[in-house]
Batch of 4 targets.
Target 1
Amino acid sequence: CGVYGVIGPKDAANFVALGLHALQHRGQEAGGIVSHDMDAGFNSARRFGYVRDNFTKASLMETLPGPIAIGHVRYSTAGAKGAAIRDVQPFFGEFSMGGAAIAHNGNLTNAEELRRELIERGSIFQSSSDTECIIHLMARSMAKSIPDRMEDALRRVEGAFSVVAMTRTKLMGVRDPLGVRPLVLGQIGDGDGWVLSSETCALDIIGAKYVREIEPGEMVVISPDGRIESRRPFRPVKPRFCVFEHVYFSRPDSIIGGRSVYETRRQIGVELAREAPVEADLVCPVPDSGTPAAIGYAHESGIPFGLGITRNQYMGRTFIEPTEQIRNMGVRLKLNVNRALVEGKRVVLVDDSVVRGTTSRKIKEMILDAGAKEVHFRIASPPTAWPCFYGVDTPERSKLLAATMTEDEMRDYLGVDSLRFVSLDGLYRAAGEAAGRDPQQPQYCDACFSGEYPVAPSDMIAKGFEV
Ligand code: 5GP
Ligand code: SF4
Ligand code: MG
């Protein structure tokens, strides 16, 4: 998911709508905005579909007045799958001291346990979302201000959270102690206002200046006069940012941890070419997510780069479509092979990841149908063998190709001439860790590749998941 918040300018919701549009790649099912205005109070609009189809309508934006607003773009990981407007964020609740609204990127690993406890004590839930727990915990806290209550609430939750929240007058941003999901601070004009955003690409769209990242374990509270208070609600631990943000999730034009996401992806391709060279005539990306790595692979290997596959710009990301049936069709609806380019060639196909293997299988068929002589897959991440419980929608373990097959078995299953994945060390090097992965204290979260979960997924363990 993507989160965004603005304080300062008149009609902050208009800025939020633009920001959410730039974060659309992080969630395409639904979006929402909450704003506050001294006369109109809190207002909220939550809609299915793209930001551009909803939050461009003047009739809707007029209902979201005020100098403070937050927003969210959603794809479902926690809670009930599929469509329910009650699960669309931001969530808003009135309680003593005026109430608050909250938008959350990530996933809480103890939400089911908390929910049971809260319901037993009388809380009335309105959604199936893990995030709603935070609102109820805030409502029950005895602390004397809303930011203090938020601290209280967040000390009870476990898992991954980058949160943007608002009171009637203040904008707040928090990252979990490991800093699994991103969150950055930007400035509008010369002190006209402040922005919190999942990614820097959504600062660029409104012309805001990138100031800094919210640090892992940090909470910022921004007042209407522009003052920023930085708090440390949690015991400090060594950060473990999601390495998959670098591989796939973030937009390539964003800057994460001082690094260009594009450059990291290109460098993964360079590492792949060194680790897994092959004789071939053409390096082709699987668009769009494989493109920077393919550029790096071609450059390092000296094999010509070409766009052998064209993506239909009017389709979304395949994996963000939540049902398997749509995902299966999605590949053909979305990608087509350029026969004139691949015919008679030995082709290296570079993609970011193999999850279920559906995409790779279809693409291999399409490339061979178009007359390619050989197909070699090069994957810009290690085999995805474990589900993510921190906010990325991977299927259950049994559906992950790499959970049940070796690399050679996967190659045979996909029916390709060769299949190689970048190593964990290669990935870490590409992401700026010159010495590779520190096995004692890994610098990133890489649980979906290594099975080492930095936060025990306790709800899942209670249901029998074995780590
Ligand atoms: P597959 O067809 O192997 O299930 O999905 C792989 C494709 O889905 C990749 O091309 C990639 O762009 C996209 N994808 C990336 N990350 C994820 C993820 O976490 N979950 C899923 N289901 N698909 C992903
Ligand atoms: Fe990111 Fe994978 Fe960790 Fe999930 S498990 S937070 S996708 S690195
Ligand atoms: Mg892809």
Note: The mean pLDDT is 94.
Target 2
Amino acid sequence: MNTTFTATVLGSPRIGPRRELKKAVEAYWAGRIDADELLATGAALRADMWSQQRAAGLDSIPVGTFSLYDQVLDTAAMLGALPERVAGIADPLDRYFAAARGNDTVAPLEMTKWFDTNYHYLVPEISPQTRFALDPSKPLGELAEARAQGVPARPVVIGPVTFLLLSKQVDASGPLLDRIDELLPLYAELLGLLAEAGAEWVQIDEPALVGDRTDDEIAVARRIYDELAALTQRPAILVASYFGSLGDALPALAATGIEGIAVDLVAGSDAPAWVPGLARKHVVAGVVDGRNVWRTDLEAALGTLVTLLGSVGSLAVSTSCSLLHVPYTLEAESGLEEPLRSWLAFGAEKTGEVVTLATALSRGRDAVAGAVEAGGSAVRSRREDPRLHDETLRARIDALTSGTRGRSEADVRRRAQQGLGLPVLPTTTIGSYPQTREIRLARAALRKGEIDQAEYLRRMRSEIGDVVALQEELGLDVLVHGEPERNDMVQYFAEQLDGFFATQNGWVQSYGSRCVRPPILYGDVRRPSPMTTEWITYAQSLTGKPVKGMLTGPVTILAWSFVRDDQPLAETADQVALAIRDETVDLQAAGIRIIQVDEPALRELLPLRAAEQQAYLDWAVGAFRLATSGVADSTQIHTHLCYSEFGQVIGAIAGLDADVTSIEAARSHMEVLGDLNEVGFDLGVGPGVYDIHSPRVPGVDEIEELLKEALAAVPAERLWVNPDCGLKTRGTEETTASLRNLVEATRRVRARL
Ligand code: GLN
Ligand code: ZN
């Protein structure tokens, strides 16, 4: 029926090697370019990507993983499942972007994490009114483009099971998966059209099958793929999984009539060689890590591949997932020194590794001996580098973690902290203040060499002076310095710690047009000198009120970096924690009495499978406690959490044992307080009473109302008053007005206690 292929990747980055797509999309939104120009930029990026992949030697190339915003939104558009509220927008591009970002009259779709990656997708809303209908123009259009270019194109679409499992049901209840039979004819039609247009293979992504799935869900998947396989007019079907093991879903898929299955052999532990049904399938083995930046141990990967050779029908080499999650190419990094550089592989280099491995399989290892040996010596050099094995550091951690990781009892601490002299319902903010034009100009001027470090310092201090004065004027109780010197809450620390390095151009898409440049954590983490004390003590010198020191926690630093893969994450977390701990001790010695250690990403690293979650939460909590237990009882530790549904981590929040936890709550009516009560949480808590995600200024009455709701769940002695998150994305005027209202509402509530 088809020819198999030997070397592929599951998807490609799309934001552009120099973030061309980001710039074009933003220019289109701002009205600076028209739709034709935007679409032409997209087409040029696709064409370049395909020709590079072909030149590298892939013999099957994913087509359709390009997106102007998000692949799940593309799927919703393809299936006629955009929300009703955008249906009236005539222009398809405007309609698409309205669903993504909202406009003056419609709210956007919600956004959430794409499995356990740092990519965020838009959550389709499906209601009983949704009438699915196929719009095949995107997959067909991109297929035609690729074929015109002579590319061995393999269209990629998100599968119906994953699409429904990731969507949100509105105005109805019951599992959305029940509606799969409405989607089946659309996929059948699409497969027919793709075959007609010349596709030999189609890749249907079903990453949702690597999570904990019920037997019923797996049975649905099995039935759907049996039905699709039974079609006569269709390409060969490759069902792709990634981000973990398929587990029971693997034999179920293998029992269907599909031709191929892609398995993630990096994040997952499936053993395709032991699944009898695979003896007649094309297995696409994801042995090259698609979401981390390390060079592959080719010898080890080859070993894995060879064990599969005799037991599966045919074999192709691939990345473990789409290359969406890594930067384009190392070639854009001129500042990277050896041997560090030799340890890495970004998108283009990983593609090369796939081809090398495929060549070794087809022509023997000798055909690529040079590449395999070069890879081997890089892997060895990394393994043996002393920067990855600091025995003194490791001994220090062992000594610190051999006992308990905790502090004194909460009551003892509470008494010791009474000296802070705080009023009931203390008011505070989360750390950052608006990033003003002056701050941005100063940063740019420093980068361009127009001002020197001393002048930059002077300007940041003046900014801190303004922020402290503003807080005093507003009457807040616990002040912050405002974080003007920080570009980013992780990068700022990564830049000052040993064991990390920064890339110049290592951008990856976070969502839509937003890109991040995660630091690379390659070695043992050490803090050569204090990172924040100078700033915080300067702020403290300007006021008699306590100033909170502001640090990022170990889990968040890991979650927003590329991390080493040669030791358990828990070990790396403890190293970062130790650096933060040393910083808290220095802050305390410098006279700072309150220190906040932010962990907004606590939930982000939560494993997909329930069986692995507790172990994660244990080490995550342990790292936080290591970071925060070096200070005296009289030093008050705060933490801050946001971006999440806290459900699965609520017990862990209590486990952090921070004296005060500020937590996002304004939009969810203080619900989190009830959840915290249920797990016996009895420490200080500041549920956000000002939603900083919106420019709206909350009124005094509204904040008062929220405080009353909070007081229904938490006694006044434990309640703090603060916004939901940092203020850096907001404007000065609206934050000033909002904080003024927050202080006033607190006064009113206090007066009636
Ligand atoms: N302290 C940080 C700030 O205020 C916290 C940011 C966050 O939670 N994402 O900006
Ligand atoms: Zn936050």
Note: The first helix runs from residue 20 to 29.
Target 3
Amino acid sequence: MLPIDPSNEVAYSFVVFGASGRLALSRIFPALWQLYRDNRLPQATKIFTFCRTKLELKTFRIKCVPYMGLERDRDPILYNSFWSNVHCCDGQYDNPEHYANLTAAMVRQEKRHDMRFANRIFYLALPPVVFDQVTLNIARKCLSATGWNHVVLEKPFARNDITYKVYQTQLCQTFKESQIYMIDHYLSRQVIHNMFVLRFTNLIWADTWNNKHIAAIMISVKTELPVQARAEYFNQFGIIRDVMTNHMMQLVAMLAIEQPYSSNVEDMRDEKLKVLKQVLNVDMSDVLLGQYCNNGRESDPVKVGYTQHSYIPKDSLTPTFAMVVLHINSKRWRSVPFILRVGKALNETKTEVRVQYKSTDCNHSGSSSSIPNELVLRLSPREQLFMRMMQKRPGPHMCLRETELDLILRDRALPINYQALLLDIFAGNQMMFMRTDEQCEIWRIFSPVLAAIEYERTKPILYDFGSCGPMAAYEMAARHGFKFY
Ligand code: NDP
């Protein structure tokens, strides 16, 4: 790991490719501003935009306003100072000369500060169609010879095992693994880090985190929102590729991982890879697909069915809901289903993991029945970590009631999501980023079933906009031993 250089002899250039896009405006620039405001960025950091759209700094700054938060008004001098470090470059992604211009702009800034070393970060906030040409041109024209170069990649990481092989080969021919940052913002969540510590440092979890005690694990990513921006991309990729093959599989790996040999990054990533290798290929019988519809409410302008959106083909079979049951062939996890559930246009917005323990034999006559312990890791709408437990209801009678053992750390002002990930990229810490071979394993697990779904034109079950999703999904989870309370 290369820590942020404290000697003030290093200049940092942070380049955002595709800066005119939604991700750059809504996530990357707000995070950079918040880090700058909190004095967490290295001192000599300059930010560069690169995209085809000719952006004037003034207009770009205005475009960012809705996402930057109220703090910008509290300290206008600091906010202006942040923008004085941003430089806009435009260019075509396939034109090497335009990359040379970008490099000239970086060098000008690096020289201005009279720094001996230059570290560069290249953030590809771009759709995958231009990925090849951009990585190639960066490698040819933009690399620093006096410091490190980190390239940051966003999902989707290809479409299947075959296209990923091409992606990975191209990437690894151009960059070393230590330069590649495949981003997954779920991994920046404190609740996930905390779960890792809970598991390995507390005997009550260390000893029960296995198939002897755990009945089933459910990971849910539910959103009330329908498909909005990036509809064309979504219709081509579908919800399994969009969410399961990256975010949700990272959660599976973090939940099922064995204790790494050390806290070294590669030991951690080796263990994640090991567990992914033990996940069996998904079988079609373990998949349920859904698509939201408006259930005959033609006149409702808000709750529009998926195929009624003007930009979606009327005969689209793209799933907007999926449940997939994974099986891990290891001594620890054999017979514990990992149930992955994801959906759009549902009744609530919530991302959580429920580790459901087996029931006890406890049977007090006259008492209300007990529910099994459940460890709940909630990532949104706010981070929560609690254990559902049973206790005696106060009073003369032996009655049970459910309670929650609350485990979350609320008292820390920690950098969140993109801020934490950007800091790691500056610090050269790859712990919370995927290694390229992990994604290879994930595509091995999902590609056959995705191909079968497309080949057979599997029809998704229609569910009502704003509902809990297809009822068949509840039945499927129950068949695998998950209990809903
Ligand atoms: P956009 O579709 O908004 O694209 C970003 C920029 O890329 C555009 O402003 C445009 O810039 C350029 N671009 C778009 N289409 C093409 C094309 N066909 N050929 C060349 N350039 C193109 O994407 P987002 O900003 O939403 O996302 C960027 C990347 O991050 C994508 O890969 C996306 O999948 C991923 N991502 C996005 C998330 C989000 O919340 N938005 C979440 C997670 C991942 P210009 O024309 O000015 O060059």
Note: The two ends are 45 Å apart (CA to CA).
Target 4
Amino acid sequence: DELISQIAAGEVVERPASAVRELVDNALDAGATQITVRLLAGGVRLIAVEDDGSGIPQDELPVALRRHATSKITNLHDLESVATMGFRGEALAAIASVSEMALLSRTAQQASAFLLDARSGELRPAARSRGTTVEVKELFFSTPARRKFLKTDATELAHCIEAVRRHALARPDVGFAIWHEGKLVEQWRATLTPAATADEGKRQQALQQRLSDVLGEDFIRDSVPVHLRLGAVTVTGRAGLPDAARSRADQQFCYVNGRFVRDKVLTHAARSAYEDVLHGHKQPVYALYVQIDPQRVDVNVHPTKIEVRFRDSREVHQAVRHAVENALAAPRA
Ligand code: ADP
Ligand code: MG
């Protein structure tokens, strides 16, 4: 069982950044408005993700860790299925199987927080305000083969920052901070109040601010706004002009319904637009947000959840291509 869950964990957790992504995902799911990530040694020695979300009730702390491990072991008949079954609800269990994990959490109803040590199972009262801290220590300590594949701390740190950056670019209503070895390395403040998230104008304004904070003021200067609605698909964001690539080569951020994705349909559509308008600009920088009826997209095709499958990829391709073409071809002030 231990072995199977460790192999399964490998599908979810390849490096510290994958754990960071899952933990930040959970914090966002819990309605956090401020998320702080603390790292030691590029996340290998410690990843602590702290949020002010709903918290996990005391009696559910052990369940959060175990819940899916149980169904996984009864359902897993061969290793093949590890890659195909999907990993919804398995992140905490998977990370816990390859690290020393502790959960510290408090709900609004509780008089105190509780701390669960995943390894010993010990549960005891502790102190913190409402929300959750997930602490992951010594990632891959029990799987030295995997630990060997990790790069330098600086490289792992860069990947961790990138993982948070991807979340941050989609959530201007949430503040993010990243600390490494006790030093604040990134901080992006929330510029959208929870009450204003439904106001599309304010959302777009906050998103521009977040793009500026995360990708730099120079990216805003060297990019053009994207906005197009084509049929069931809405595309917004910013497309970088050739100058933008100088400071920030080859950074492409695509979101589908608020979730960061890597998708060939989207990147191909954007690349085609750049080729048409700027005649083969090779390394464009852009952040594109695609909104589409959830029924027309499947986001669960890969355990890491960054791949999607569109029901009608032509419709999405067209919308993105036209959106970026229009943006790049529009006269500039
Ligand atoms: P999933 O997020 O897909 O449900 P996870 O293994 O990532 O699976 O998390 C298991 C459960 O633990 C979640 O469903 C949630 O109930 C709880 N949980 C994890 N992290 C947090 C958090 N930061 N705040 C509140 N609840 C959390
Ligand atoms: Mg999760």
Note: Residues 313-329 form the longest helix (17 residues).
